[in-house]
Amino acid sequence: MKVLAFSGSPRREGNTKIVLRHTLEPLTEAGFETEIIDLFDYDVKPCLGCNDCRKKEYCPIDDDLIPLYEKMKASDGIILASPVYFCAATPPLKALIDRTGYIARNNGYVFQGKAGGPIAVTAREGANFALAQINFWFSYNGLIVPGSSSWNVVLGEEIGEVLKDSRGLGAVRLFGQNLARLIYQLKK
Q: For the chain, which residues make up each domain, given as ranges?
């Protein structure tokens, strides 16, 4: 079983990656294959609203989206994580959300029944809005999101400061554990 974790951070070894590694630990310990995908390593353009994906399961924009979309379809779980930029997810994550959401929705809700969830990493403000923005993708596409002890928000501004937020790290670790349990139940 495989869980994909998308990082919307431009910092390859920043706080979002630290939080994702912490989140994925219980999944790896439970025997899952995990992969973190740094979206800033890919060219994922914004949706043009052309509606070509209503005709068939593709997108006419020539970039790196379709291989990522296929990986998402093949996975058992999906985590979408972003640092908070002015109360929102970063543009690459938003582009991934918009385009994969339209393609999936227009072609039979292909992510329906998978499990996953959002994570927001913030210095202080805006996490609730960013978390909700990302979570709407999961809800709209019919994915199942397990709970935790709190929202999946970890606080930290400078690289490494997230390691001081024991409550936030505990919440995302429990989210990872619950995600593993949920996927096992869904696969029975």
A: 2-187
